[in-house]
Specification:
With 146 residues, this protein is an alpha/beta fold. Helix content is 27%, strand content 16%.
């Protein structure tokens, strides 16, 4: 994720819907440059409002989706915003259940523009499935010293 961030809060109406954006603003404010909200949103992160183009000109590296709509899906109404972010040269970061690559044309647009699509909910490597049995590596740590 390239810093700093443009926090996208869509049309969120409550802080609970935008907990990722509020968390980033509260705990990493130095890398949160601006917010992008749709006209229906009543929320304000206390950051300047910027379009993806204005954010890119201000040195922003990534648009972070900081809102979680019901069901964790990326609404179709957001697709033009995501495409605009890519066209502006921003990486797009999402924690949604629907991967960014499922948005029509987004993967090709990102590849052509040379920016990244980052799905934080989807690991980039495979982790072994736990068996429920102790591994030899940790067995000695669990034995009593008595």
């Amino acid at each position: 994720m390239r810093k700093p961030y443009l926090l996208f809060i869509g049309e969120a109406q409550s802080e609970a819907e935008a907990k990722t954006a509020f968390g980033l603003r509260d705990w990493a404010r130095d890398v949160c440059k601006a917010q992008l909200r749709l006209p229906q949103s009543r929320l304000d992160l206390g950051l300047p409002d910027m379009t993806p183009d204005a954010a890119a000109r201000a040195g922003v590296g990534s648009l972070v989706i900081g809102v979680a709509p019901v069901g964790g899906q990326i609404p179709r109404a957001w697709e033009p915003v995501l495409h605009a972010a890519i066209a502006a040269g921003l990486d797009v970061v999402s924690g949604m259940h629907r991967p960014l690559e499922a948005v029509p044309g987004l993967e090709d647009a990102a590849r052509n523009r040379g920016v990244a699509l980052v799905n934080v909910r989807l690991p980039r490597r495979n982790f072994p499935t736990a068996s429920g049995r102790r591994s030899e590596e940790h067995t000695s740590e669990l034995q009593s010293p008595i």
